[in-house]
Amino acid sequence: MKLALIGFGAMNSMVSMLARQDDHEVALVLTSKDTSRSVEELAERLAGHDVAVDFSTASAVLKNIEACALAQVPLVEGTTGWREDEEAARRTVEEHNGALVYGANFSIGVNLFYRIASYAAALFRASQVYAPFIEEAHHARKRDAPSGTALRLRDLLSEHFDAGVISVASTRAGNIPGTHRVGFDGAADQILLTHEARSREGFASGALLAARWIKERKGVYEFSEVMDDILRKG
User: How far apart are CA 221 and CA 226, in angstroms?
Assistant: First the structure.
């Protein structure tokens, strides 16, 4: 694949390293110096790439999505903290017949964890004696709290419990890559499910998986849909 990277912090640095190991070409890197460019200017630079991968800032997401849609370049959107703009992003992509895959977390392990947490919530709701809670911890530089992953977990648990009873606690400290816990607390015992990231490599691998999947497609997809398709096909 001929890739364009939007943002070149820790995440896209890892994406770049893994992409080159798999013989993909990183042909363009847009950094904070490019944020002053217009949508049309960004689209001109992006044109001709197979896929773009965005790990930048929430404030730039809609502009980047529009630029990729104009350029007809499928986009893997890994930035978090822009959830309130998802409908506007969807309209933009559909208007230009573009392609977008987005997600709160591109880790394959986390996306399997979502499924485990959802199934567990159904079991514990049926028992009617356990209270659900979510805990998440990330490095001190992460701006959004709760994390997008924690919000996604809350949505999944809300399919079985009233959202008002689901406690979500966030910690920002040091260099924690990312830890998420889903707990069910009862009078007699507590059950705790944990996903702990050891590095950013899992997120970068998932982003490249999404890039390969979206390359020849049109439309808007959440990363869980990518995982559903891959798991279904085995």
Answer: 7
User: What is the distance between the alpha carbons of residues 22 and 143, in angstroms, rounded to a whole number?
Assistant: 31
* DSSP, res 143: -
Neighbouring C-beta atoms of residue 6, cutoff 10 Å: 30
pLDDT in tens, the chain (234 residues): 999 999 999 999 999 999 999 999 999 999 999 999 999 999 999 999 999 999 999 999 999 999 999 999 999 999 988 989 999 999 999 999 999 999 989 999 999 999 999 999 999 999 999 999 999 999 999 888 999 999 999 999 999 999 999 999 999 999 998 999 999 999 999 999 999 999 889 999 999 999 999 999 999 999 999 999 999 987
Amino acid identity, position 194 = T
Longest dimension (CA), the chain: 62
Helices and strands in the chain, H and E counts: 8, 10
Q: Which of the residues are catalytic?
A: 138, 142
Dig out the tokens for 14 from the structure.
């890892």
Q: Residue with structure tokens 């990729």?
A: 68
C-alpha span between 117 and 74 (Å, rounded): 30
Q: Are 31 and 221 in contact (CB under 8 A)?
A: no
